[in-house]
Write a structure and sequence with these properties.
With 156 residues, the chain is of the alpha/beta class. It is 28% helix and 16% strand. The strands form two sheets. The protein has a three-stranded parallel beta sheet with strand order 2-1-3. A two-stranded parallel ribbon has the order 4-5. The longest helix is centred in the C-terminal third of the chain and has 12 residues. The radius of gyration is 19 Å and the shape is elongated.
């Protein structure tokens, strides 16, 4: 593809629509990549949206996005989408100061199964699919006391 771009006569023009969520954007220098792309191709208009997860995958298929940086579980990308794993990220549970699992280190999903969960991830997000899959493997049922699309929703 680089050779095709280099062979074009004149500056590259057009638009690049990117969907990205903040959960995945922190895993690499997204702003640095965008800055470098904009410097290399100043005539390309870049639009960045907050689309992620299965929404971003659907928008790739319809042509609403050209690129998506999404938090998808390995089984979530629909057929017809080429993808590349940027970096695997471990699941991390946060326990309160007096919770019995505080300070215990690595655990399996069976141990916190009886705990109350505050889900701060949209149901269609890859992170949620990872937690659901880990719970299923451990044959553990989570008790969600509250489900929000993001932790920021708690303050709004």
């Amino acid at each position: 593809m680089h050779a095709e771009i280099a062979s074009l006569d004149g500056p590259l023009r057009g638009r690049l629509r990117i969907g990205s969520v903040t959960r995945t954007a922190g895993n690499f220098d997204q702003l640095g990549l965008l800055r470098g792309y904009q410097e290399a191709y100043p005539a390309v208009e870049i639009t960045l949206s907050g689309s992620g997860g299965t929404d971003a995958a659907a928008q790739l298929l319809t042509g609403e996005l050209e690129v998506a940086v999404a938090d998808l579980h390995e089984h979530q990308p629909p057929p017809g989408i080429a993808y590349h794993l940027l970096r695997p990220v471990p699941l991390v549970a946060v326990a309160g100061r007096r919770h019995r699992l505080r300070g215990t280190g690595v655990t399996d999903m069976g141990k916190p199964a009886d705990a109350r969960f505050l889900e701060c991830v949209p149901p269609d997000a890859g992170l949620r699919a990872q937690v659901d899959a880990a719970s299923d493997r451990a044959r553990a049922r989570r008790r969600s006391v509250c489900s929000r699309r993001s932790a920021g929703d708690l303050a709004s």
